[in-house]
């Protein structure tokens, strides 16, 4: 069935193939593609095919889908790196969220330090 979409959503367009992206893995539920402005040797975004605005809304609406996002993230980190990775879900503008279709940043391929905010 067609995924749940939102109008004018960049990541819905990437899921649909209407905006190009370098897709590195996908499943029936989620798509993984390279961040256009990578901040680490491994920097991939994993999005559910269905539109949910942020991770809190996804967790409330469809927790099994959140687990599928995490599973695809782990697969990418294992395929492309050591299998050790950092997952970041920026949630809300003040936390740095700029695209309001939930996405996990999968970061790895380097020794990641502690965050000093
Ligand atoms: P946020 O700031 O919402 O946590 O993360 C959005 C991420 O999407 C940023 O890291 C940004 O570099 C990435 N991004 C923005 N536009 C595009 C795009 O058109 N294609 C890809 N592949 N990544 C994008
Ligand atoms: Zn969307």
UniProtKB/TrEMBL annotation:
InterPro entries: Histidine_triad_HIT, HIT-like, HIT-like_sf. The active site is at 103 (tele-amp-histidine intermediate). Pfam families: HIT. A motif (Histidine triad motif) lies at residues 101-105. SUPFAM superfamilies: HIT-like. One of its GO terms (molecular function) is catalytic activity. Residues 10-117 form the HIT domain. Gene3D superfamilies: HIT-like. It comes from the Bacteria. This is HIT domain-containing protein.
